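Cast an eye over this sequence plus tokens and explain the fold to me:
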Amino acid sequence: MGSSKRGADNTRSISDHTRTLHQRLHQALNLGTRSNEEHGSKWQCTDIQIQRHVVRSISAFLDSVSGDSLHQSLLKASIGDVVEALVWILGCENMATLSMAANVTLKLVNILPYSILQSYVLDLVSPLSSLLSYHQTEVATSCANCLNLILSNLSIKNEKKVWDVLKRREIVHHAISNIQSFSGGTQPIELFQPTVLLLSTILQRWPPSRFTVWSDATLMRTLNDILVKLDFYDKQEVLKLLSSIALCGSGAMKLLESGDALLQTMVRCMDGSQPQCVRMEAFKLAQCLAINEQRFFEMMSLCCEPIIQATVSGMSKWSQKSRKVSSEQISLVLEACRLALITRWAGKHHIYFWEHGIDNVLLYLLLENCHKLHQSCLSLEEQISIAQEGLSSCYLLVLRNYIWDILGWLAIHCEEGFNPEIHGNKISIDMLITCSCLAFVDAIQKRHRIRQSDAADILRSESATRAVLMMINSPCKYIATKARDRLSEILVPYGRDILKHLLSTLEYVSSRNNFDRLQITIYVMALACYISLPESRLWLLEFAGVKTLLGFVRWCLSGSIKAETLSFGPYLHNAFRERTCCYVSSEDWGGKDILILCSLWGLAELMKQSGYMRNNLEISFSGVMYNVAELLNNLQDACINMSTPGVRWFATYALSSLGLYGFPNKFGKRIGKALSENYHADMRLILTNGECLSVHSVILAIRCPSLLPLGDLSDEASGSLVPSSMKAEFKKVIRLSAHVDHQALLKLLDFVYLGYLQADEELLKKLKRLAKCCNLQPLLQLLYRKSPKWCTPFPTYDLSPALGSLGHYFSDVILEAKATELLSWTCEVCPVSVPHMHVHKVILSSSCAYLRALFDSGMQESHSQTIKVPISWEAMVKLVAWFYSDELPNPPSGCLWENMGIEEKLHELQPYIELCWLADFWFMENVQEACSDVIASRLDSLRELSIKVIQIAASFSLWNLAELAATYVAPIYRQLCDSGELEDLDEVLVNMIRSASVQYSQKGINHSR
């Protein structure tokens, strides 16, 4: 009853004028409504006068209800008829009514809540898109503005359908044409601005749209020219469009290929003399160009110091006198801080951050009362008091995460010899260290009191804790020492109790799967900090900390942590990252396995300091015996199976305390067989005592060239020619110095072939000397048990360089592809005129049992210098890449893939289908599985592609692959039958698709692999 009464009150509150306009609207709409038995009532009227009358009636009604929520019921009741009429009138493209209709449509979209509008989005988008290139500027401008409003608020569920409409109407091409017309002087600025904004919106939402833009060289030059010439406010839209282009890796590369001119303009747009909206867009563009580490370094190589200077300036140039910051200024500082997160990568830009006073800027953003630090001779107690007072205020809390992060990255990448006393910034750095240590202690003490609603506070605690961890482990001796000392001072009253609480919590968590991941992350990082403090080691032993940490590591590595893994700084993954395409997928050094990384970090440091594990073969944890061999296997598995470089580094760091030095990997296991089984060896190493070791010159040349006297080889080794007659066995004897120890050499060869070695403490000294002579720096780091430096690339086992000039000298067999369509073929090494590759039996035999059996068979083929491979050149190149790197090259992806035609896509997938067939024939299950995964990853784009793949797979008798492809067309089987697209297929294949369709209707299909 109450709701009915309120409805009646709302009805009474609507003015008589609005009711009258509503009635006139319906009367006008009825003039154009046509009825028929088949389609019911539809608004269809070509009479210009009626169209004018309807448009005016709609406009008058919208004006009367605009901004009044009480009138939404009237608007809701009429919206369907209004949209139908406007869509018809826009579709007629009558000059007499079109401008009015476009303006009224814009008014409607502005007024109508999206919750109501979303049901009519598809109806409106189609005619509006068609009119974007209309010759009347007013019409095109209204349509562009209208589309901007619609697409900016579009729900995810409508994205695919709307994109299909936009693609069909070629809206991207129309937008490009408008921009180029403006550059040519034929379009006014009024149309240029909304068109650029619309194109930017489209590129942000739909990655496939980006290819058409960045591949248009004329447009890219036009945008660059416009950016230089336009006045301040017009630059905002162009910068936004360039940011959208940079979301594509290929687009970002195109922008950077233009040289430093664009970057210099971007830096000028960051300057304080520019309007704030322009400055913000310039910072966002820089962020987009720095999404990927490779692109970031390209940007820095072109324009490093000016970008850093502008970034620091953007973080600091606000009202410093009043210390009051407006919301607009905070937005600008926030964008500058986001760009400053490029400190997460090592490089020369760190030098410029320090030179431009980043420490002072961070301190001013952190503490509102930092002016008190200018007092002379402040004691430690006074510094702590000032820091506590400043941190307890709510000053610029929105920036705290970024401040801690920037500080942490600056510390972890700081040079060893950096001395704040020389650079004159000792006070600010000391104070930042003090603040972070206080925030660290506060984070641990109050964790049990934090409610779920305090998510922002938990994130700040995580960032502060991570900053302390990085400062304690900084390569800079001053920062690391100061951080340890200051944290120890602050922990004096309650450090022991906090450690006890940390350990008990981690032990409790290890027995359960339901826990607060972010809170436990903070605890694990805090424990890693404690391990670095000398006075905490006795407490760790007292509270059985070693056992607890081992148990937690075991729990992490066992796979107990599933999904929802956390990365360093969860808030760093902004909208830019979520919409990127065409970037080579590379795992961040810290990655998303932060719990595992930090627990391994702490364990490795503890093992290095105490030698605990080396002296204890078994440890009891919660009643379960945990032995060194088990830990060894778990850590090796982490090295092999984890993708995060940081996790793999700290696993190897921990392994070094267990007597295993190096980088365990799957590829090394395969190649290592060649050393132990001694097949196809072509070189002998002779020690002074007469002992002899058979090795493989090609593996030594790539993995440890210092063991090869390359200077003694003929000029052919330098790169151009292989000896004209390839011998089946090329033997070379190398006599080693008397200083080379036999046992040390054997272990070193283990590292060369397997990627790692195991040695006891007695042999380490000799191994260090030998590894140093061979310049094996990554191995040396582990032999000396040095902690890995943040962002150091994880060493890969890659023999691909053997396919180059040096490897040609040691080649003992040729792989020849089947006939190709290539018109001509030339080889730099030999006169053979068919597509081929010079390879090595030892590498092929290690990865393919079929080829090894062939080479060892004694039959005619085993003595042949050429092996004919029954696949195309493109497929053979991918196969050889796998032989030499354990990785299969991927076909194009992202917008490059999406903009290929069916035949182009099929041409890209054909080599993988061929490899699937050959892998089945040559018993290479890993290759077959990898190829199937690649093909499956590309089958969800077009049904025609899946049908083609089914046909080709069947022609190779690859029935499993054909059935996999059939699952992708199973959901539309009935449509395919009705359209006749299955008529050309063999009945067996049609039945295969039908069976997949039945399975889909019963259970659904999950394509995740």
